[in-house]
## 1
Amino acid sequence: MAVNRLLHNILLVFLGFGLSAGAAYAQDEADLAKTIQNPIAAMVTLPFQANWNRGIGDDDRTGMNLNIQPVIPFPGDKWNIITRTIIPVNSVPIGTSASEFGIGDTSFSMFFSPNDSGKLTWGIGPALSLPTSSNPEILGSGKWSIGPTAVVFYGTGNWTMGAVASQTWSFAGDSDREDVNFFFAQWFVNYNLGNGWAIGTAPIVTANWEAESGQEWTIPLGLQVSKVLRLGKQPVNLLLGYYENVEHPDGGPESQIRFQLNLLYP
């Protein structure tokens, strides 16, 4: 399948880039655990985040979403530039038994962050959504969208916390498709237990401002546990979480199981 070949090539590109950064030796598991909890840390990472969204539609179907999320920093003397890309691979349920599998729209964010801000760090920049979906009618918006994004992070002792937010509006694309007016936010709190273990929460809150009144928000609550370890010489972070959507549009998923494998290249 063309989609499978494209996905295979994407994985090879990002894996090749990550491997060129070299394996990590300087930081132990506990330090790495805190570092990767900072969305604007100056470290190359390659997360693969799989989400199983349950309770979709009247038939309580399950949809699957795999986000390939390379983070590539460009350190500077006074400012760092951190780029974050999200390439989604989705399986969307249709009706009682069918589903559509393919690549969704790609999201790209760029944060400008001071490199000497201490325990409290922040970043601002642009967010862009590109209509890269393999099936725009089902898996994408058919629109180019842009807007601002911001992040704040605070770490003290065993605790890390912060939030990432963006707001995008469509400015080009298929004129027959609905305009994009989309809000995204992810707040997070983590407590590091030592030896690379951490427990916390990182729910993803979204709002589609083009939806009907009362159908805009998806608001989850839940917990997750993570562990930094080494597969041979390669440091990785494994994460497992469960989230219940206390607010969601009619027919939207009721809960989510999240699993993430994050390759680390300090």
## 2
Amino acid sequence: MHIRRPHDRSRPGTKQNTQGFTLAEMAVVVLITGLMLGAAASIALPILQKARRIETDQKMANIARALDDYAAQNFRVPCPAIPDTKTANPPWGFEAGSGPAGDMVPPDCGSDAAGWEGIIPFRTLNIPVDWIKDSANHYITYAISPAFAQDVMKDSLPVHSRCRTVDWFMAAETYDPTVTDPKTGKSAVNVLIAKSARKARFCCSGALPGTDLVIIDVNRQPQIAIPRQVLPASYRPANVIFPDPYAPDVQVPHDDRATAPVYVLVSHGRYGLGAWTGVGRAKFPLTGATPAQTENGNGDRVFIEIPPAERTGKEMGFDNIVLWRTQDMIFAEQGKSCSLP
């Protein structure tokens, strides 16, 4: 009986498929794989960028919270830290001008032309060092209006008239208008004591208004329409007042404001254009930066904030993250007010 055996492809004379994939088939596989990887990358990249933005946003919000807490307790913001990891006086991470131990209140960090801008003084704020870099591992810039970092224990610091109204004073001695001073023969002067002089010197600082930060929008218009006054009034001493809070109908002129940007935080984006390098006072070059990125890294006290929805034309590549606070915003974040003592 003849038994039919399965076809043995190994026997001589049988046909074998020894060619495998042809070059054309391999090209198709490579093409399909490339298309799939490209599609995956196009989906993953925006997700990754969004995740990095969220991480940086969170870090900057934490820094702002620490600065606001510090200001509410001390009635000043710390000076920026020197952007040099080798600095020893003060030690790395303490506010500039705070001495070899980092525990002194700087007399005026604005007296140094470079003292108003640097990095986050993480040791002064007692926050983790990893907060001071964004998700791209670049230092976040911290800049201030110097008037708001001054030592409010100084009685001579000038105070804007917004905090010179009746709400901010209590009477120590008041006289009838008919009473005269026996030494001068003139009407006796009422003695008034400030209720919260330290807070007034921060909330209504009249010092160094010409050195304030300027925050502008995409149209290069100031985000605060009316700047602070140029010629401040002063407590010197506290019972010499202007305007007189007990005079009838005392009002602060509508075009004379105490509100100003106290500080600004800037993440300089994916490539860190204009960010501090951590070596001396060197910054990463601004080559290839948009006009607004250049503005945020050129050290001229002017900073620009452009929301994603407004990034068109020359600013299509703008990827800075900007966060800023006025003294009123700082106290509002604390659930408090800068309008009352």
